[in-house]
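Dig into what follows:

_____
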Amino acid sequence: MKNYTGLLTKKVTNILNKISVNEKAKILSAAGYIAESYFNNGKLFLFGTGHNHCLAEEALHRAGGFANACPILDKKIDFTQGIKKASKFERTTGIATSVLKKYNLQKNDTLIIFSNSGVNKVPIEAAEFAKKIGLKVISVVSIKYSKSINTSPKNKKLYNITDISIDNKNPIGDSLIKIANNINIGSSSTITGSFILNAIFIELANLLKNEKPFPFYLSSNLKGANVHNKKLEKKFSKRNKFLQ
C-alpha cells in the first residue's frame, strides 16, 4: 500500500525548504518593515479571505505570537455566511474598502495579505487601499499559481502591487497528492502561510529582543504568563478591539 502520508510529508518539507532558502531575504525585509512600524507606534494588521482568513486569525493572542498584531476579521470575508456568499464577496468590488475602513488603518501601520492565487478582487483592493494611505504592504502568494491565471485585460496580480511579495511555493491548484480522477488532495497553502508568518515573527522577535515588555505572548498555562500577557494586552488594546 502506498504511503500517502509519507509522500505528503516529503512534498511539504520540500516546499518549506524552498521557502527557507529562496524567500529568506523577503522574510527578513518583512520583519524589518514591521519593526520599523512598531518603533513608530504603528500596528501590524493581517488580512485574508476564505481559508486565508484563518491565517489572519493565527496571529491573534497565541503562544509565541506578536502582541501588536491585529487580524482583520469580518463575516463578509470568512465562511460564517456560507461558501456561496464568501465566494461572491471575494470577487466583489468595494468589500475590502468597507471592511478595512472599520480598522482605522494609519500610514505608520503594516499590512500582511494572504492570498494563494493573488488574483481575486478583495485582496487586490485591500492592497491598493492600504498603499494609498501609505502603509507598507506584504503579500504571501503562490507566484506560480498567480502567473498561470489570466484574470482580465488589466490582469492585476497581488504580487505586483505589494511592497514585498513572499512566494509560498505552492503548486497550481494548491493541492499536492494525486490519488484518483485527476484531482489532487492535500492543500498546502495554510501550512506554508503559517510557516511564513511564524518565520517573520521569529525574525521580528530578534529585532525587538531588547523591548520591555517583550511584545510576544506566553502560553497562558505557563508560570508568569498571566502577568506578562496582561501587560501586553493593556499596551496594545487601544487599536485592537480583540484585546479589549
In short: The mean pLDDT is 91. The beta strands are 44-48, 69-71, 110-114, 136-141, 164-167, 175-180, 183-187. The two ends are 52 Å apart (CA to CA). Residues 4-22 form the longest helix (19 residues).
